[in-house]
Specification:
Layout: H1 2-6, E1 30-31, E2 39-40, H2 44-49, E3 69-70, E4 73-74, E5 76-78, H3 84-96, H4 111-119, H5 147-157, E6 161-164, E7 167-170, H6 172-179, H7 183-195, E8 208-209, H8 222-230, E9 242-243, H9 244-253, E10 268-269, H10 280-296, E11 302-306, E12 334-339, H11 341-346, E13 364-367, E14 371-374, H12 380-386, E15 390-392, E16 397-400, H13 402-410, H14 415-425, E17 426-427, H15 432-447, E18 454-458, H16 462-470, E19 479-480, E20 485-489, H17 493-502
Length: 515
Amino acid sequence: MFSAKYGCSAPKTTGYWGHNKKPGPLLAVIQHERESPPTLVPGISEIYQKFVAAPAPPTASTVEAPAEAFGEQPVHVFSGEAEAPAQLARVLRLIQSGKIKVADSTGRPTDASVRALAEVLLQPDFDLEKPEESGMPWESDVAGPVRAHAWGVLAQQCDWAKAKAGTLALTPAGKAILEKFTPELYSDGVSSFLENEKFDELNRVNHIRGQSGKAKRWMTSPADRKVAFSETVGNWPLGKWMTFQETVRIIAASGGEHEVLASRGSLYICDVQYGSIWDCRDLSIQFFRALTMESLATLGLVDIAYVYPHSLWPEFSDSYGRDAHSFLGRYDGLLYARLNPLGAWCFGLADSYSLPEIKKTAIFHILPNHELVATTAPDTSIIAFVDLFAVRKSDAVWGFDAEKTLGFIEGGGSMEELRDFLIARSSGGIPDNVGVWLDGLLRKSSSCRRAEKAVLFEWSEPAQAALMASSSETSRLCHHVGENRIVVPAAKLAAFTRAARKMGFILPRVPGPKA
């Protein structure tokens, strides 16, 4: 921290200075205890604070813009801020359709689900694969998906979705932000993400091994690391590009560099005996790379510039096993980062925020015969949403269906959301007869409500049921539902039982609810 903040090595504070060496002047004010870090002599801080100004916060060095090339590689820039609402809606609709499966052991999306998520990305996933013609056979590691994988995890971390029997389903928070996106709801989701302990971004650096074994007990909480990081973002200059190494320096100088391991040497590269990891700072930087590129950039909180990671090894460059892999992590090519206004809002650094409007393109035409015809090829997320309320008749034609539409509403959707979708995505608007049909479905969907729990009793003779329904003792406590049946509201069951006993009837015991 001292070195990152002041640009020089921290003075040595050891209590042993060796043969023919004089103790430094700091030993006059610093005390040492065995197996404890050095501390100031009590009372010293209060004295010096009267004469010495508080140190200034760390100042970041910025660049005008990312370099256009890194060596022979073109540098790619990604910004997800403007598309955040539309991108999130696509992901949540895919989840709402029940098409995102997750592994039981890790909670991460399956390969098929990652492919489905890749198809709904508004911008293509990060370009991290090395061109085949420029690589040697031993440099052929595949980086794989980043944002397509991240959305299946972030939806859970942000409390927008929850796994049920291996399939993601929307939570109340997910349904709320899908129905109406607001910066406040998005910020709430980011807060949940920072506090989530289930998923660790470092797990995505799969060449760092041992994370799922015994070493897991020695790994610090990912939530503690993310919260420590978030407390340093206030020292990032808003809207200014920094090299990634400069962001690491600012994190360290601000006290946000939280160690990944509580016990060194428990993680390793390639071989547990020869490749044990002892450089915990490089390990922390790898975590920050994954956090920035996979989570923060995907959420649209920071903009990034990157190249493919092959042969770079910005950390652990002298580690055992380097020659066995093309890169340590798929994020090794992260070169620049920039905090944007959405990130400043979600990290509590801005008082207000409004998202820029994105013009939606009409891709359907609604016919009076209740058919929805695609005029251009819709993407997977749009198809998944239409399948929730309509029956497909061909590759480009759907028919409105009452049962599916009511199922969409029952599953957490709303008629307002459906109308907004049809108006925004359809040329010519909604025909009058289709609008009347939708209004009728809305009335039907809200015409019945759940009243209260009740118990149904059957009597041996219809006359006995009629007596209970007409008696002054019991008529106000029950309902006659035909022939020999009486319905008693659960809240009135005790009173009805007592009144029936006075009339000479013993009611069967009603079992309580199961735990």
